[in-house]
Write a structure and sequence with these properties.
6 copies of one chain form a homohexamer. Chain A is built from 10 helices and 9 strands. With about 325 residues, chain A is α/β, with parallel strands linked by helices. The first copy, chain A, has one domain: TIM Barrel. In chain A, strands 2-1-9-6-5-4-3 form a 7-stranded parallel beta sheet. A two-stranded antiparallel sheet of chain A has the order 7-8. In chain A, strand 4, helix 5 and strand 5 form a beta-alpha-beta unit. In chain A, helix 3 packs parallel to helix 4 and helix 7 packs parallel to helix 8. The longest helix of chain A has 23 residues. Chains in contact: A-B, A-C, A-E, A-F, B-C, B-D, B-F, C-D, C-E, D-E, D-F, E-F. At the D-E interface, helix 5 and helix 7 of D face helix 5 and helix 7 of E.
Chain lengths: ~325, ~325, ~325, ~325, ~325, ~325
């Protein structure tokens, strides 16, 4: 039987704040429900399992003060957070947890200067060494680990996902959080991505983006801020992502997880984005059909009829 | 070591005739050599292994008189022809033979009226029953059977190729004659086809085509003749096929067979087509490089250097 | 005076069934009205006037048991059904009846193997012989016969429509049921089709489709089922048909027939499709303007003014 | 029998000058022959049959001094020139003469401010009054009048051509000089133009153009000079015109006139343009085939065979 | 602080008439408010500051009877109207007035026949002589003069706008009324236009258009009426203008003027257009965000941290 | 007077080697001349002025052994090399030197994790501190410093070029080496780049590239080697760069430097690439015209004529 996806839900990361109704989980959930959301996704801050030293100073802001400036301690803390998250998820009845892979190789993403032979193999081996114990713990708790495929991370496209999955021996808990905005910004075919990797997609962020290169700047953006870059995030429906195509493919492949709004528009006000997001998702939801037009469903093949049609005696 | 393809060659089917120099194999080969071809492909007429009765009257013209109007005899004759061709190929030192699959299901290619359940499975099973003994004989002779993927045949795209290959249990002699013109006319992505199926491609026809639909007619052509159809064959370079892309992909995957001109233009004179075809193919030939820009080739990985670059102690 | 089209209506073929409210004409009409439809189209099963023997076994399922396996009897039955439909239409106050042309040549739609000289002419002559008495009866009843231009039928594009119309001597009752989904799937320019043939378009099915070819399959579909084919039907708004363009052209040419939803999506549930279809059509409806911006309407030409503007003395 | 076009030829307007070899018809023809041209086209200056007063001051430069500032005399002079050209053409054995229609309405080409009712009808009636005697004289001499379809003239696209042809009652000598550059610059479909109007095309200028609009300027060009306009002429092969498509269509429709280079590039030196033009045209020439792949050529239809294939008894 | 635009408003030119509710400013404003508009724009008829004699007869219809046939008097009247409009605007508390530039050169927009050297410079100098006193008066009243960039006017694209602005020495009151429909019809990049000229855009008309060239006609339209031209105006949302892109860019650049519907569709009824226009604009309105994702907002740069990240000691 | 570019030349970096004729400057130059090149470009290895520590281990391979592992010494060595290169260029009569900017910020090119406020400003300030003395020395020698705009460098697009040029106060010796392959791979509009920055372009590499993203990988390439990446370099003419457009624009803006082949194809053999490169460049060379079609060249403006045309008395 075909299955339909769930939604709309909303990711709270960009909304949580110090003022009513954004300051408590109860009030923010009530706010979301009134806008038409039937689920919320709660952010965690555990994306620090693998950090190259070039980024140490930038990631310290995400860690508690007592581990800042001490990368090994920070990594240990991050791993512990994930182990706790696995158990928390089981206790809350959740079956999937979102995270980042971390990045050891990202600073070499452009293939110049040349990477020495073996660098990529060694990088993924190290990632696997760090993630396998975490994946095993999540497996014990019955929870999937959904890596957000994301530039800046070692897992940033299908190829790196395949390399990682192979490095962790196809671990059954290694899954994907699918966010098309990160694919559009790297001009990856995000619809074909679903055709290839749908079996491991367990989470879905509804986030839009647009890419409008000029004679001044292209995909790298020239160190500009978000609003000035050719590639930038937009509120759902304001960008170039073909969500109709995405929802159709997810329905076709029987994805039955949530469709979660992630708002991060460089132009539109977040509350307008949230208010428009729930009906936007609702309009794209597809209840799948049980009807097929292809054959005389339910009837066993009539061998003689078939041979007649094929022109065989 | 990467390998390069061979060529240019020319398929003689559309040129052989009753007049000098087209009336003997010696004179036509000399004519081809003078135009710059370094190989010729000689047509055979053995594509009658599987014919649906609706087409009996149309295929009889390809068979000798004594089997016309007698489909079982005609099929037996065609199978015998193929058995002889296998041995002839070995004797001539050839390692590949071109053919068509035949068609039992083609009249049902449009999915209306509905096909009864099991029809496609039964059709491919029958095809396999007929082709397996032939494939085995070709295997004994050390010759590949290259099916031209072609509308009108049961093997007309990648999907039907996959079904057939599965039905013959992945027989090692079941291979592909790649002709992009037949893919362009059905709007199949002929470059991606090479990415997916390159391991089985053993022959290559350089034949061009164009598709210019209007408000009057589309892919089906409205029973019009070739010159009036939106989709039609053209001399190489006069159509829409991206041969630069094809030669690049074949070079990248190490295809080392021939590039064979097949001329079948509805507008241009065949002798002009043949004269232009040899330089056209020659300009597209790629001698592959042995240089790589990716890593410090030949050096063994330096583990400590790698760990330094990855930021590991 | 310009005229506007009528709608939304719904074609009941894919909805009628054994369960409430789909089991009686009254209850299903009430269900449709509640969704916002102001008209219904009732299916008939009379598309059996011309069937090539290769399809006999597949069409028998559409005919009553007593004529199955007996093609001449089945054809006679089908013609009678049409004669009755003509009179029924007049009695119900309807002025148009939808049908299929039937197919004698469809199995030769791909121009290989070659069609013998005269085949197409003979085929359309036979079609005309069968349809002329029916068209005359419809003329007596004052009802148009609207052929759905449809792959699998001899009338499957503009060219075949022109051939047929010529074969029936431009019979005034020979008209067109326009369904863009069948045109998109053959990559015919469905907007230009309206420019060319609008005078004979008397019915309009609002049915969507999409075509997404890959390296595995193109327009022929590889004998796959609907959900897996590159070309497939979709709920209105979910596919690639430019309905805004269609409604604009129909309004421009003064089409005043109905816009009838035909739902046949391989993914979305039919009840969701029906619920979304009525507002979808309503949003596309155009009430035509009486204003023109082109000239000083209503004023007779002022010859001297014109000559002044043209610079003539 | 299909016919092939002639060429390459070269239009001398932009080359004639005061210096060797461009100063005599003999030396310039020898120069052209050495570059590979087998024909030349000689410019005339007779495009002054219909001039709106707003352009009087700009066209006077094309007329002899004694008629400048005197529009009626200038028009009379121009008509006389054409009458002489008709006879000169016959004497030289030429069967076509190139000209412009003139323009009475061009200043109103943008439909704002509104044109008063009847303006266009009156304009074409006046054009017909002026051209009919000229067309008749050309008819007496057996020479076609080929109007270059050209912005700035009343005959600037297919619609205005149709209006004019109707106004001169479909005069058999009213023909078309086809120059795709003028169509590309107005974004008219120059390939479809051949499909529609090929029967009247008797001359063909091989002239290229490109259109690259920006945020600063579009089709109107902002009163800039040629090199700065988004739309500008280029040497053949340097612009965006699909000459392969044009030569294919002209061959398909049996055009047997000349392919004449007209060079007017805003960037490239004219002598480089002329040198490259002859081989450019030569490479695009198509000798048409006599072979057809569609049916068993030369055989009379076999009625019983046809009925068998159609499935009729 | 970023600013948001205002709307929806409606331009009354095409709606005012003799019948209720379109015959008084009170009743038409009430009608507009009920449709959801929060502002109205009232048309004036003052676009006669510069008229080339070729158009005298066509513009007289816009002027009062006593100045018709007397171009200098008509121009004087038009200038006076503008002077009055400046004061009226201040009295009504309005800060922007819409107008046309007039046209002295438009009849030479196509660069053939050649324009004599200096023509464009002289034309813009004359325009500046006429407009500078008007601009100064508007400056005294504190009101911007917004020129609608429009074919048929000398200011019809970015290049002519730049020339004019230079001719009036960058007068601070010389501004732009941005209407994308006029840009789409000349294939100018209307999104890039905003990037380049946004600082002078003070008014915005929400008017749609489409351009569908054929083999019969392109951008010039062949003197056809609006409904038959390849380029024509449409109700907002029915054409090809990317309003999402426009509203995004205007929000990004802090445009805080009005979004004013101008309806002028050649197909759809004006009242349907007006009813659909208000929600269409409302759905496109963007309240701008104050959030930035780019840096640790509000924090002063930490020099040492920066040097650490840059790898400087 | 318009100027034309020089060429073809060839960049020797990828050809120099240990075997004849690639092992001496004399023999390799003779080899190049025989292929049709009229100039050579000799590589230097001085791109080490600014290296972020994360790349120290990768750049050491480019430096002499005695400064490896000692970044300050390596930078000093690199600066000295450049000072010597300035003098060497003057001695050789060269007026331009190619180099890279170096990179302090490249590891933060993706804007996540967030860059702290001021990072980009500080980075460019540091770059300017290092480059200003070098630029001054080159100025003393009369030689331009041409930065290759290149991913992996801080100067990788137009925006970063503008920032750098501002940081060095618009130093007159700061120029651009234009290589379109690096722009295509980041989807930057390389034709518009010339429109904007042509005044500073002093060198031009003829290098081709292609970008074919899939569902597996996009612009970042997933750490794959060159042959497998969606974006990869190709021999000139084998990729997607529009060289006709580039040569046209360079000719239009009067670029009179060299067109230098840089071969770095991941598929084609370098000697085939070199052999095809010279005629490829030669075919694209444009000798600029001195003719203009815009006005009556050389004549002084005739004021009264202009006013007549403008309709002024």
């Amino acid at each position: 039987m075909m299955k339909s996806l769930k939604g709309p839900a909303i990711f709270l990361a960009q909304f949580a704040g110090d003022e009513e109704p954004f300051n408590t989980i109860e009030s923010i959930s009530r706010w979301a429900a009134e806008l038409g959301y039937s689920g919320v996704q709660i952010p965690t801050w555990d994306s620090l399992v693998a950090v190259h030293p070039a980024y140490d100073h930038m990631f310290d802001a995400f860690a508690p003060e007592n581990v800042r400036g001490n990368p090994p301690a920070r990594t240990e803390w991050a791993v512990n957070q994930l182990m706790l998250a696995a158990r928390a998820s089981r206790n809350l009845g959740l079956n999937a947890h979102a995270t980042f892979s971390g990045a050891l190789m990202w600073h070499t993403v452009y293939p110049w200067p040349q990477r020495p032979a073996g660098l990529v193999e060694e990088g993924f081996a190290e990632l696997a060494r760090r993630w396998l114990p975490i994946l095993d713990e999540f497996d014990r708790q019955g929870v999937d680990v959904c890596y957000e495929i994301h530039p800046g991370e070692d897992l940033h496209d299908g190829i790196t996902w395949e390399r990682f999955l192979k490095a962790v021996n196809g671990h059954p808990r290694a899954c994907i959080l699918y966010d098309p905005s990160h694919f559009l910004l790297q001009q990856l075919d995000y619809l074909q991505f679903i055709d290839i990797y749908h079996e491991r997609i367990r989470m879905f962020h509804v986030k839009d983006a647009e890419f409008n290169p000029t004679g001044r700047s292209g995909v790298y953006g020239g160190y500009q801020g978000w609003v000035d870059r050719p590639g930038r995030f937009r509120s759902p429906g304001d960008g170039q992502v073909d969500f109709q195509g995405i929802f159709s493919k997810l329905a076709q492949y029987g994805y039955d997880g949530w469709a979660v709004l992630e708002w991060e528009c460089c132009i539109k006000h977040p509350e307008q984005g949230a208010a428009e997001g729930a009906p936007f998702i609702a309009e794209h939801m597809i209840t799948v059909t049980e009807k097929a037009f292809d054959d005389f469903a339910g009837q066993p093949p009539d061998k003689q009829l078939l041979r007649n049609i094929l022109g065989l005696s």
